[in-house]
Every structure is written in structure tokens, then in C-alpha cells.
Fold this protein.
Amino acid sequence: MNSSPFKRSKRPEVVKPKEPPVIPDLEKPSEGVIKWFSDRGISRKVVEMAGVETGSAYMNGESKRAIAFVHRDCGGKIINVKFRSNQKEFSQIKNGARLPYLWNLIEPSNDQLIITEGEVDALTCMEAGYSNVISVPDGASDKKLLWVEDLEEELKQFKRIVLLTDGDSVGIAMRNELARRLGRHRCWRVDWPEGCKDPNDMLVGYGAEKFKEFVDGAEPWPLKALHETRSYVNDAFALLNGDVKTGVSTGINALDLNYRVRAGELNIISGAPGVGKSEFLDQICLNLAAMEDWRFAVCSFENPVDEHINKLAAKYVGKPAWDVRSGEKMNHNEWSEAVSFIGKHYYWIRSEDEAPTVEWCLENATACVQRYPNVRGLILDPYNEFEHRRPSGWTETEYVSQMLASLKRWAAANECAIFLVAHPAKLRRNQDGTFPVPEPYDIAGSANFYNKADNILIVERDFTEGSDDIRVHVKKIRFKQSGRVGTVDLKYNYVDGSYRTPTVGLSG
């Protein structure tokens, strides 16, 4: 095959390393290697068809003879070699490119693609008669799944993608991420029989014919709008036994008692003008990035991106990015470390010409989820600054209801938490010039903010000179797994903009 059979886009077939790969001397597999595969139910014919070879590889401090799984591009050129020893040790050649194993054998006329976690599992599928089979380049440890982005256009041509990963937690996590990025509507999955952890286990235990029957009967990935009752049985049983997944920590101990974050929920942050709603949200999201490796798509009008980055950096380092009266600011090394972290966890959705619509933001957030790994949060700050194109004949209440419903659908479909900052309607100042603490029904636009939201947090700040007191009112928690209604006392650091649990709560 001299050229790729796929319709090409402007994207490269594979991102090649700066230096060419170091190709070792390879040999045809020995009879011992053929027997090794035979013991695993894989014939000589399949081994030869897949182009398996042998070679010497450096593993655990010594050179060993090992099976060589040769990765080729669609022109037949070797771009990577992955070695496997008898002791299940693995290594790869230097500067090898990341392209799925057996991608060079794919026939685009076949609208089905099988994806496995390892090379032996890919050969297992070939033994059962499947032709369009690939193995991910780096096993389940390849969290970034960069090859999915590299082959974005080519992968679109497959209508049915069967995900045959291992049955352990790591394999299932990779299966879920692949489905999320490839599109659940065209993904199928299997749960291996008792005693089988992967495709090869089933081939050895049941034979090629039963294996094929099992894979052909793969379950379509459950879609949000269409389920059989049996899809809910396990979750219902978990609820019965109290085995319910709670939200993840906010990184602020006092707040965790009342509020924890769950992907797929709509969170509304509100409060009087100037209380620090956006800064409070920044702290929570930065903590989630540090503790859970969550990534965020950010559509914010509150600050220019450069200023926003420096505010996040201050919280990350614990020092301001610019001179303040307190004196010390972060040095260049601290700033560089912070910006590197922010660059890995934040993606910015910007419209420089005009205020975007919510629909436009969701469209770009969808692209962000599909393109980048582990995007688990979408920040919309604030709601009031979006351009709202209310259809003719709709009341504001009807419009807000539909808009919030679309946010909830998007959050659930993409397994992302949405954080929506919403200002209250015009508040009357107290006699002392301060604003009262708003209620959820005070949010500008509609009472639907309370009805539709999963969780609502109201931020209150003590503006008395010298005070660093913050009070967070958790006004609504839809599901008990996320917390409970209540009031939380926090402290605010004016130097770096961070929030923390106080050693002593607010008085009164």
C-alpha cells in the first residue's frame, strides 16, 4: 500500500517526533514465538499477517529478546516498534511516532472499527475473523489519546466502533473516554464473561467462534434519551445499598461538608456586586485542576485572559503576580510553573468582536471536550453579559427556562459540571450602604434559575475594613450526593486572592 486509502484533511496523518525513530534490527518470529502465540489461541497465519517480528530490547536494566509489534504508516514505513518480553515487560524504540497498531491494514470501505487496549488483543480479534482492528499506541496509560486528534477526520468514516478494552477499572476508564471523544452514538461495548479480563482471555477460554458471537452481540453505548430498564438496574441496586458516588472535593474543607462537585450538574454562583463571585469560583476550579486533573473550558467576560491567568497564578503560587503593599510577589520561575499548570488545564472560549450567545459558547465547548482530554468543567461568567436572542413571542421566563434546560442537557451529555455566574437583579442598599444577601429568586431574569439549577451558592463578603470574612450560603442541593443546604464560613486572602477554611468561624 503506497498511500493512505482515507480521504485526507489538512491535518497530518500522525504527529511525528522531531528526530527520526531509531529502528532496531528485526527478525522473523522463531518457532518459540509462534508457539507462544499459539498457546494464546493465535495462529501463525495471523502472526504473519500482522507483521510480528522479534528483536532485542533494553528492559529493566538488561538487553532481552522480545516480541516486536511493528507499527507502520499507511505507506508501509516503520514508525514505531513496541517490544514485549516473556515476563510481560514492555518498551518502545526511541522517537517512535504514536499511531495505532495495525492502522496500516485498515480498510476504509468497512464501516466497522474495533479498538483494543493491547496488541495481543488486536491479534485475537483478527483470529476471530475481524479485519478492521487497531490497538491504542500506549495502552490504557495513554490518557491524552493524542492519536484520536491526529486521526480525527479518518475516524469520522466509521459508523460502528466496538471498544474492546480490558475489564479492569483502568480499561473501563479508557473505554469511557474513547466513547466520549469518538461519539457515544456510534460506539459499542462488551463486558467480559466471568473469569475473563480481556479479549484474549475469552478467545482462550471459549474459542474463536464463541468469541465472535460475543463481540457481534456487543451492546450499543447507552444514549441519554434511550435506555432499557436493565441499563438502570445496577445503579438502582447501588442506591439500595448506599453505594453512591459522591461529588469530588472543592479543596476547601469547610465547604466540602455542604457542597461537593459532580460532573454533569448545573451550578449557579451568585451574590451581591463586588463580593468576589468569580474569584471564589476560580479557587474551586483551580483546586479541582490540582487534585482531580480536571480541565476547564472558560467563557468569561470578567477579565481579559492575561489578567485572568495572573489571578489564577497568584492562587496557585500563593503570591501576587504584581506588586502590592504587602511587598513580595512571585518570581519568574514561580510564574512560569504556574502558567505551565494553567496552560494544561484551561482552554479559553473568546469572542473579541461581540458578546457571544449561550448557544455559540456551548458549540465551542463541545469542540473543546472532543479535542482535549479530561475536560470536566465549563465556566460561564457572567450570564448577564451573554447576548440573549429571545425568540419572538417568548416571555423572558420561557426563554430562560429553555436556555437553562439546554445547559443541563449539555452538562449531562458531556459529563461536565457547568459553573454559571449570575448576578442578582438590582438590589437596594442597606442603610449602611452595603447590599443585602440576595436570594436565589433574586437572580436577574427568572425564577427558573432556582428551579432548573442543581446547586446554588450565594457568596457574601464582609466589607468592614480589615475583615477577611467570607460566607457562602449553599441555597440548593438537588442530590444529596452533592451535599446539603447550609452556611459556610471562609477566609479570603487579599494578597493572593485565595480562599481557605478559617480556624475560627465568623462571629454572630
